[in-house]
Specification:
4Fe4S_Fe_S_CS; two-stranded parallel sheet; cobalt; alpha+beta; single chain; tRNA processing; 371 residues; oxidoreductase; 10 strands; 4-stranded antiparallel beta sheet; EC 1.17.99.6
Length: 371
Amino acid sequence: MDYHQLAEDIKRWGTELGFQKVGITDVDLSTEREHLQRWLDQGMHGDMEWMARHGDLRTRPDQLHPGAVRAISVRMNYLPAEAGFAKTLKNPRLGYISRYALGRDYHKLMRKRLKQLGDKIQSACAELDFRPFVDSAPIMEKPLAIKAGLGWRGKHTLVLDEGSGSWFFLGELLVNLPLPMDTEVEEKCGTCSACITICPTQAIVEPYVLDARRCISYLTIELRDSIPEQYRPLMGNRIYGCDDCQLICPWNRYAQLTGEDDFAPRKDLHAPELLELWQWDEEQFLKRTEGSPIRRIGYECWQRNLAVAFGNAPTDTDIIAALEQRYPSSTPMVQEHIEWALARQRSGAVKVEKQVIRLVRAVEKGLKRDA
């Protein structure tokens, strides 16, 4: 078997299937073990106990798929046209949803494409044994992508590429073929620390280290309990995830738009009015987020996040009335956040965070793509 030719074919087939880049590496992640264990020991994973439970397995891909000797790593752009960063962030009456979650859930789409890639390889090499992954098992996707030459680790911990920025999803095929490997690319963050200084909650505690417990994406998506009060004023109108560290990154001026229709923003989720979202009952929430990654947080956490956003909006009698109306039927956790929001609304003491002003100005000046 000519594995060099097969590797070239795999990359061509991958791009034909809609992946913007395909790289190949071995499955040795032993150099990541110490860093991962230190991060876990410091409790920076927060309530994501599954990360500690599968900690050692995350650095041993060959145990996830016995016989695997290579990882075929792929990336797929997700930045939608008319992303509307500035429009949403600067209007506290709108809800900001991380751009990756505006369309359909990417897991199924990418997994299907990876399965098709595996089948294509198998048609050329019958002895292939493969397994696709899209954030679907305890596997360290970013280190594999970096080893496969798809980009370097940015100081915000995301994978960066000089020609595409960071607005892309990652996935991989573990295979049993000794394919030739790609080389890592040079790290090009240099002395830039924009992502560290812009983070509203200062979750990037040092270059390349993220304390998830402080991250707005963790607080609005992974956390299932009350959001610590000290972080609530810093969340602004971000109701699902946060993109600030990507928005301020100079490399994202080169970001490429997605060509996938599935990633196009849903009308109900693109710059939505907070008051309209608040009117959804649980049945409406489930219906309107069907096929969306947002659905996984559940209705209670959705209401919790909206309540925090209301607490960060200017005083509005309609908001106060809406919060008071929903209070009796809400869960104790949501009631706690409603009480906080009502106190803020009635005090009229809400201020726009300086980081938001800086971020919006950068976007409006064209430093970042506000497609």
